[in-house]
Design a protein that fits this description.
The radius of gyration is 19 Å and the shape is globular. The chain has 376 residues and is mostly helical. The two termini are 32 Å apart. The protein has helices at 6-26, 51-63, 66-78, 80-85, 93-108, 111-125, 159-169, 173-188, 225-242, 245-260, 284-300, 303-323, 354-367; strands spanning 31-35, 38-41, 128-129, 134-135, 150-152, 199-202, 209-213, 339-342, 347-351. The strands form four sheets. It has a three-stranded antiparallel beta sheet with strand order 5-6-7, with no helix packed on it. Strands 1-2 form a two-stranded antiparallel ribbon.
């Protein structure tokens, strides 16, 4: 492996060049998973819609290439039909509008983007279950399904939209809801060893916890690595926004679990407790997300722990660049190979994933101090 800043600069340049090349086909589309080298384009209501424009904003902020900003703004505009149509909206409002409208407002001061983000924050706040103190995850996937009692670990990453709404509007209600949900995460999602449940099911009438659910992990009591990554990053952001020590303690716990399970190449298995043959299957998106979260955690943690988290985050990102990057594969649009989206469903296994690409670029931006970062 290369040492020093050299690999970081090379990785940033490769990501910028490949993304610019990808804009020629993807344009203002919404890539999700790459199949046979080509990113399939989802509709604007899919939960990953924010990651491509979010990556464009990250790269634009330093390159000042106008075509990247233009495409990011076009993506944001295309999402208006989803925002105003209402029916497709679920807890992923945070993923979708933090990386589009909050990003745009942060960088340009756009009033239109501010209004979009406030609309999204209000819809997200409206999913709060008062009895259970959780944000409802999804709407029914099929007729007759009842999932109003389900919350998921991913939603930690949606809470920054609510903290942004309080900071922007001066109204504390949004932050109150975010903090209540995160307190529920501390109580019900995190096991004593630092692993996490993907889904927790509550009684929506009484708010009582019914059970933990494996979700996209191998089994109920397994350890889905991307769930761990959501927890590391989301809880660190919770500490950033609130200063509550309990969130920092939990972020440390989940980070230490994640890091203790990594192999020699520093990139996680898709589930740390899957049967041994299945643990050979990696999830680069979990590695990239965890690395960006660890870099923020390093900023928030003092002393030797800070240096440790930064060193481990750099090791993950460097391994992703050198061992999992698609830089020398001209017929592959994805930046990172070997992502695993939903193994139990048999969906998008061992392919590039747009959120893996996004968090990889964000992690590099953190190493190069190329803020701002829209979750903050």
């Amino acid at each position: 492996m290369e040492t020093g800043e050299n690999w970081i600069d090379k990785a940033w340049d490769q990501a910028l060049r490949k993304t610019i090349r990808n804009t020629k086909r993807i344009g203002d589309g919404f890539p999700h998973a790459s199949k046979n080298g080509v990113y399939e384009l989802a509709d604007p209501g899919w939960w990953t819609a924010g990651f491509w424009p979010g990556m464009l904003w990250l790269l634009y902020n330093q390159s000042e290439r106008g075509e990247l900003r233009e495409l990011a703004e076009k993506c944001e505009s295309r999402m208006d039909a989803v925002l105003d149509g209402y029916e497709r909206l679920d807890h992923d409002l945070g993923f979708m509008w933090t990386l589009t409208s909050v990003a745009n407002y942060t960088l340009t001061g756009s009033n239109v983007s501010e209004v979009r983000a406030m609309k999204a924050a209000n819809y997200l706040a409206g999913r709060f279950n008062l009895k259970g103190r959780y944000i409802r995850a999804w709407n029914p996937w099929k007729e007759g399904e009842r999932n109003e009692g389900e919350a998921i670990i991913d939603c930690c990453m949606n809470m920054p939209l609510l903290y942004w709404a309080t900071r922007t509007s001066g109204d504390p209600r949004y932050a109150h809801i975010a903090t209540a949900h995160l307190d529920t995460v501390l109580e019900h999602f995190i096991r004593s060893d630092g692993s996490v449940y993907h889904i927790v099911r509550f009684d929506p009438e009484t708010g009582e916890k019914i059970e933990g659910v494996g979700g996209q992990g191998f089994a109920t009591e397994s350890a889905w690595s991307r769930g761990s990554a959501w927890a590391i990053y989301g809880l660190t952001l919770a500490y950033h926004h609130t200063g509550k020590k309990e969130y920092l303690t939990a972020a440390n716990l989940t980070a230490n679990f994640f890091l203790s399970r990594l192999g020699e190449d520093s990139v996680p298995a898709w589930d740390f407790r899957a049967p041994k043959p299945l643990r050979e299957l990696r999830d680069t998106s979990a590695g990239a997300c965890a690395a960006s979260g660890l870099l923020l955690l390093a900023e928030k943690t003092g002393g030797e722990d800070s240096a440790f988290y930064r060193m481990r985050a750099e090791a993950i990102l460097q391994s992703l660049f050198e061992n999992y990057g698609a830089w020398d594969i001209p017929d592959e649009e994805g930046l990172l190979l070997h992502g695993t989206s939903h193994y139990p469903q048999g969906s998008n296994i061992d392919v590039p994933l747009i959120y893996g690409d996004y968090y990889f670029v964000e992690g590099l931006a953190r190493l190069k101090d190329y803020g701002p970062f829209y979750w903050e």
